[in-house]
Amino acid sequence: MKRFQPSPRPDTLRYKVKSTLEESRYMPPGDRRYRLHVAESLGMDADARGALERLLSMSAGRALGVAGRFMPDAGVSRLLASRGIEEGVEEADFGRFRAIVIPTCGVAARQRAEWVEAGHRLEDFTLPKLRRAQVALGLLKMEGAQGLVIGRHEDPESLAIARSSPGTRIIEDTTDTARLVFSPAFGVVCQPTLSPRKTEWLVQQLRFRYRDAKVTFLNTACDGMTARDEALEKLLPVCDHVLIVGDPGEASCEALLETATRRGRTATIVAGVEEIAAAGLPQGARVALTAGAYACDEAIRGVAAALCSA
Questions:
Q1: Worst-scoring range by mean pLDDT, 33-42, 180-189, 229-238?
Q2: Pair 89, 139 in one domain
């Protein structure tokens, strides 16, 4: 299997953050100087960044509405609002816009077909990692398996995958596995931004509990999530605290939080500079900086700059 290689754009982001750190060496020391370590892989991958850039380029002179939230990040939502792009548009209001944007998490194929039949012009921004999970689930269902998605119940990504194949159940913990009705075959995929360890553990629990069933798992975790997780793991031995830039509750941020706490590190998810103080970092703290799958580059660099100048 081909190993994931970070794209040049995320590397550029890390280079800019590191440049900020280098420049800070010539600044007068503050009262709370932090020793900052930046993860090698953090923030948006090439697909997510490309989708955001494409949407912004389309917004010039066009009234665009998003059928939901384009990305689960407050910084992205503020950026879209500043460009006049409205999120959370209900179907009854689709007529007010020249085009309706399908968010990065995607929608069920049946829902999309209904909108097309109703004459709405759609711009589909479903990320490849979500399409892959939907297709994989469809193939497993075609083989007669009970479809399962390992993910978070209320997460738009998990819901979009599950709704692509009627009858699919979402599995978030062992309580959900215990409530399943026995099936001779279970077909399992996972939310792409979920913690890899949690996914593997729940698959093992399924196989242990339903030993007489055939459990087929197609790993639809994205390479970017694995890269972020591994990059953070490398920093944990030399850091005491972890700052994760992104939205609390967003799956990739929670996965990074889980990785840090499992190793006994204090970790905090911050949406931006204004939330750093609430993290309660002590003087001289060794801080690992990482970011979720949808965190804006500006937010990441802003947090890094604020830590440098503290």
A1: 33-42
A2: no
pLDDT, one tens digit per residue, over 61-118 is 789 999 999 999 999 999 999 999 999 999 999 999 999 999 999 988 889 999 999 9
pLDDT at 3 over 60: no
pTM: 0.85
Structural domain count, the chain: 3
Q: What is the chain's alpha carbon radius of gyration, rounded to the nearest angstrom?
A: 21
Whether the predicted pLDDT of 13 surpasses 70:
no
Q: Could you list the residue range(s) of the whole structural domain that residue 283 is in?
A: 8-45+225-309
CATH number of the domain where residue 211 is located = 3.40.1010.20
136 and 212, same domain (yes or no): yes
